[in-house]
Structures are given as C-alpha cells and as structure tokens.
C-alpha cells in the first residue's frame, strides 16, 4: 500500500464471516500490485479539453440567443403565426397528493392552451409571458419574449444548454419560455423538492414523476432525472442529449416520464418496489443534493423494469411530457 | 485554474491516485482500463475543481464520477469486454496458488453485474458506510444493502472461489441457497 494513499475507513465493521472473507480477499487482490505515479500532464490536458468543450457549449447557447432574438423581432413585426398544438394521445394522471399549485398547468385531457413551456417565471409574470396574456393587455414586455398579438409568437430560452428545437416531442425544448426562467435560480435538490410517482391503467410501461417545490424559493430542475431502478444504471435521457431545464416556484410542479422497458428486453429478475431519483445540477451529470427515494404505491405493488429504462427531460407541462412519453 | 487551485488539485491527485486506481481496477479487472477511468474521473474533477474543493465531501464527489465513468465504459464496451493486461506484480516470491486465487477473484468480480460489483467494491474494499455508498452510487441505502448482499452471495457461490469461500452455518449449505429460496418464494416461483 502506498504511503500517501487516502483511507476513508471504518464503514463496514465486517459483521459476518463472509463479509470479513470478502474484505480480506479484496484487500489482498487490490494491494498486490504497484500503482504507477499519475500522469499529471495527461490529466491536465484532459480537463482543459473538458473546459474548452464547455466554453464551446456556452458560445453555442449565445448564438441560439441571437437567433431567438431575431425570431422574436420577426414575430413582433407581424411575422408570427398560429402555433400548432396537437392533442396528446393518452395522459397520465398526476399524483393525487397535489396541493396548491397556482401556476402549474392543469393536468387535463384537452390540448394545452399554450405551447408547452420549459420554464416558468419564478414569479407571476405581469406581461403574459408564455403567450397566455390576453392580447389587450398592452403592457410593455420587459422580457421581450411574448408576443402582444394573440400570444402566439415564441422564443427559446437563452443560455439553455443546447437551446430549444421547437419540436413538441422534445419536452423542455419547445415553446414559450421566458428569458428569466431557470437562469440565476439554484438547482432543485432533495431539500426543497418532493417527488412522487404515478402510473396509468393503460400502460405498465410508463411512469410519471411529479416533482413539487416544497421550499420557499424557486429552483430549477436541470436536464432529466437519473432514476436508479433496482440494479439498473441511472436512466439516460430519451434520444436527444440533455438540454432542458424547468424552473418551479414554491408549490409548483414539474414532470418527467420514465419508460421502464422496451420490446425485446429480458424479463426483470427482481421487480422494483422503490427507486431513487437523482437530480442534476447546472452541469450535466453532476449531482444536485442527495438521491431521493420514491416508494412504489401499494396498489401498484412493483414495477417491471427492462434492461434499458429511459427518462424524459423535466418539463412544467404535463401534457408535453405525456405526449412525448407515449409517442415512444 | 489559479495557481493555488492548481497546487491543491495536484496534491489531491497525488494523494488519491493509488486508491482510485485500485478501486477502478477492482471494478474493471484491467490495469490499463483502471488507469484510464481514474484519469478520466480526475480530469472531470479538475474541470470543476473549485466547486468540488468547496464541497463537503470531495472524495465522495470524485468516487461518484469514477463510478459513472466506469458505467459509461461498461455501456460502450459491454459486448467486447476483454480481460487485458495484468497488473504490475510486486517483485518477490509469489506462490502459484496465490496468483490463481487472485485471477479467480478478478474473474468472479467481473462476472457480477456492474452495479453489484461497484457496491461490493465500495462497501468492502473502500470500506465506506452504506449511506456513503448510496451517495456515491446515486441510489438508496436499501439498494446498496441488497446489491452488496447479492454480490457477496454470488462471489461465494462462484465455482472458481468455492474452495476458499466460507460456508453458511453448520449445515454447509451453499452460500446463496437460503436467500435465493426466499426470493423465489416472494415472487411466487416454484
């Protein structure tokens, strides 16, 4: 063992003979070779490469902002058209434990009145951001994002990693979002968010996660929830790389869907009765707080999980999540 | 990175490197892969060093990156998992049976599912409390317990290790027999 090694130690206490045996085996196995010194130059080169890629991502986001501004300008001068909104095929019912959620989109079976929104303003917006204000409001729009004519013009949230595509099938990347959403707010953690799950009788393959802000300030759910189901890896996002965020004020909710298995997956050996949800920070794949344990409701008993479960990005619009989830 | 931060990061790398490589070796079964995974984890840590340094548990943070890097490696290379270079042996006498035993343990570890392997390594080699393993793996404490217990059972039941693994009780039952029967009963299998 190298003298400079760091030992954390003291965790197991080796309760049984089997544990003591395994610990001795692992210690003997791992200590039987000499570790070469670290290659500082290579580590430095690699972490500088990571920083360069991050800088490039920021530059990309800035260019998206520029394009968004131009689109807003076109919309304000009469170029905006009526947005097309499709009716979701099937909808999950959010958890019945909903308390007051003043600005949360109501979970209904009808098509949403607005284009799905990735971000919501931390405070009620005075100017119809999100295209929901009546056309006659006439108030100046400090954010410059909502159109005064019918609320149909949209812009993409700036500084969002990867930007928005406008495709309703990608929750969190489409629709009317404000420039303030998500920016400057802290990431939601296990301290200020409660997560519950629900399913629908129509499908045993889809789970809806509902995150409720139980804190006193707004927070942002970045990217997608990394759900650990049994011995599976944390769920990756569906298809597109993680690039969305959802800001929720106190009492508000955000949603994400989980697809548990795909056709051709091998049957699960151990049905899952609880799972952990890992929230992400501003930087993708970095943890925000501790894992949040979610118990499967008794009436559901357990979830069958395939070999490659996936989760959608967080979104404040439950209809958008359902539409995306059930299309897969 | 500021000079102070760079110096602190270098010191962190120097002190943690051997331990991280050994942990990665137990997870990958390959020395070169282990070095690469440890290097990747530290490079990612270096890219966010100020935040990690300010956190309460920089070691847990880096271990988590390490586990994630290993998961990514597994995803990429699952179909072509090859047991590569052997580690550099310490000079000196090394009885043949000991080498065999080491390789048997390495192969048995590699036969575990990756998350079970991670739970076993973090719990019994890193000697971390279950709560910290849960934090590193991003799962619940209950999952850590079950994963570590299943991993232990599988290792004890592995034919390559059956000669050296302790048996359960006086009856001498195979290690996992009782637990497996209990699981099958729970799931209604006959």
UniProtKB/TrEMBL annotation, chain A:
Keywords: Membrane, Transmembrane, Transmembrane helix. The chain crosses the membrane at residues 55-76. Residues 85-118, 132-160, 167-180 have a biased composition (Low complexity). It comes from the Bacteria. Residues 80-188 are annotated as: Disordered. Residues 188-284 form the DUF4232 domain. It holds the Pfam family DUF4232. This is DUF4232 domain-containing protein. It comes from Streptodolium elevatio.
UniProtKB/TrEMBL annotation, chain B:
PANTHER family: ECF RNA POLYMERASE SIGMA FACTOR SIGM, RNA POLYMERASE ECF-TYPE SIGMA FACTO. It comes from the Bacteria. Residues 14-78 form the RNA polymerase sigma-70 region domain. It holds the Pfam family Sigma70_r2. Residues 163-190 are annotated as: Disordered. Belongs to the sigma-70 factor family. ECF subfamily. Residues 102-155 form the RNA polymerase sigma factor 70 region 4 type domain. This is SigE family RNA polymerase sigma factor. It comes from Streptodolium elevatio. Residues 181-190 have a biased composition (Basic and acidic residues). The keyword Transcription regulation applies. Keywords: DNA-binding, Sigma factor, Transcription, Transcription regulation. The keyword Endoplasmic reticulum does not apply. SUPFAM superfamilies: Sigma2 domain of RNA polymerase sigma factors, Sigma3 and sigma4 domains of RNA polymerase sigma factors. Coiled coil: none annotated.
């Amino acid at each position: 063992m190298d003298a400079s090694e760091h030992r954390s130690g003291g965790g197991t206490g080796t309760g049984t003979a089997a544990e003591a045996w395994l610990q001795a085996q692992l210690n003997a196995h791992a200590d039987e070779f000499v570790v070469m010194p670290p290659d500082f130059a290579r580590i430095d080169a690699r972490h500088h490469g990571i920083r360069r890629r991050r800088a490039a991502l920021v530059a990309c986001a800035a260019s998206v902002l520029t394009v968004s501004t131009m689109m807003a300008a076109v919309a304000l001068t009469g170029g905006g058209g009526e947005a097309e909104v499709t009716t979701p095929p099937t909808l999950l019912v959010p958890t019945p434990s909903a308390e007051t959620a003043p600005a949360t989109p109501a979970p209904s079976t009808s098509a949403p009145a607005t284009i799905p929104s990735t971000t919501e303003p931390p405070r009620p917006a005075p100017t119809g951001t999100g295209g929901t204000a009546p056309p006659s409001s006439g108030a100046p729009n400090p954010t410059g994002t909502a159109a005064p004519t019918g609320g149909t013009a949209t812009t993409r949230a700036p500084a969002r990693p990867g930007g928005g595509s406008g495709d309703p099938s990608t929750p969190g990347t489409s629709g009317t979002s404000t420039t303030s959403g998500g920016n400057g707010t802290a990431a939601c953690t296990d301290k200020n968010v409660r997560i519950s799950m629900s399913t629908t009788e129509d499908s045993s393959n889809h789970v809806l996660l509902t995150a409720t802000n139980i804190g006193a300030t707004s927070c942002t759910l970045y990217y997608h929830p990394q759900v650990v189901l049994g011995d599976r890896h944390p769920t990756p996002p569906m298809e597109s790389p993680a690039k969305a965020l959802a800001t929720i004020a106190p009492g508000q909710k955000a949603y994400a869907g989980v697809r548990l298995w795909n056709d051709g997956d091998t049957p699960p050996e151990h049905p899952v009765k609880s799972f952990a949800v890992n929230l992400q920070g501003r930087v993708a794949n970095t943890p925000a707080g501790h894992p949040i344990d979610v118990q499967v409701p008794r009436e559901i008993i357990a979830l069958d999980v395939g070999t490659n479960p996936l989760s959608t990005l967080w979104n404040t619009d439950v209809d958008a999540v359902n539409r995306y989830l059930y299309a897969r | 990175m500021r000079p102070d931060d760079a110096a602190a990061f270098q010191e962190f790398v120097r002190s943690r490197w051997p331990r991280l490589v050994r942990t990665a070796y137990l997870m990958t079964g390959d020395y070169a892969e282990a070095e690469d995974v440890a290097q990747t984890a530290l490079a990612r840590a270096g890219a966010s060093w100020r935040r990690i340094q300010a956190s309460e548990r920089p070691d847990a943070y880096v271990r988590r990156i390490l586990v994630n890097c290993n998961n990514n490696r597994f995803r990429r290379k699952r179909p072509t998992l090859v047991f590569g270079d052997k580690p550099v042996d310490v000079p000196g006498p090394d009885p043949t049976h000991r080498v065999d035993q080491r390789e048997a343990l390495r192969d048995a570890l590699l036969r575990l599912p990756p998350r079970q392997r991670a739970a076993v390594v973090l719990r019994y080699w890193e000697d971390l409390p279950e709560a910290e393993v849960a934090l590193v793996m991003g799962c619940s404490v209950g999952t850590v317990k079950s994963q570590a217990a299943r991993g232990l059972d599988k290792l004890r039941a592995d034919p390559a290790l059956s000669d050296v693994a302790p048996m359960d009780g006086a009856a001498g039952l195979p290690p996992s027999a009782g637990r497996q029967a209990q699981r099958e009963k729970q799931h209604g299998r006959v």
